[in-house]
Amino acid sequence: GQALGGTFHLTLTSRAPPTRALTNLVIRFSLGKGASGVTAMASGGGIEREGGGAGRWDYENNAGEDGGKEEVVWKIEKLSSTDRPAILSGQFLS
């Protein structure tokens, strides 16, 4: 069969006051059953922080009673309204 898939592009900005940064953000989104071959790149955010400004992402395939959940998990340590938007762009096969 023909390989199918898709792309994703998330942009995250903070509207909180500059003195109140958002911390320990976790964004999860499902790619649907059978997703594989996920590639993504995080960019933007606060560039002075260790580990990159826009955080880290991972692909989780949690097998369970419902046959598993394929989801991307994007973790951002800190995001202030004065930071550039944090961006996660990628693609996947299905």
The averaged pLDDT comes out at 84
Q: How much of the sequence is in beta strands?
A: over 45%
Count of alpha/pi helices:
0
How many runs of DSSP E, i.e. beta strands? 6
- Listing every helix as H and every strand as E from the N terminus to the C terminus, the arrangement reads EEEEEE
What does the overall shape look like? Answer: elongated
Strand order of the largest sheet: 1-6-3
Could you give the distance between the termini?
11 Å
Query: How many strands, what sense, and barrel or not for the largest sheet?
Result: 3 strands, antiparallel
How much helical structure, as a percent, in the residues? under 10%
Structural class: mainly beta
Uncertain runs are: none
Report Rg. Answer: 15 Å
Name the descriptors:
single chain; 94 residues; mainly beta; three-stranded antiparallel beta sheet; 6 strands; 0% helix; elongated
Description:
The protein is mostly beta strands. Helix content is 0%, strand content 55%. The chain has strands at 5-12, 22-30, 36-44, 56-62, 69-79, 86-93. The strands form 2 sheets. A 3-stranded antiparallel sheet has the order 1-6-3, with no helix packed on it. Strands 2-5-4 form a 3-stranded antiparallel sheet, with no helix packed on it. It starts with a strand and ends with a strand. The model has no long low-confidence stretch (mean pLDDT 84). It is elongated and about 50 Å long.
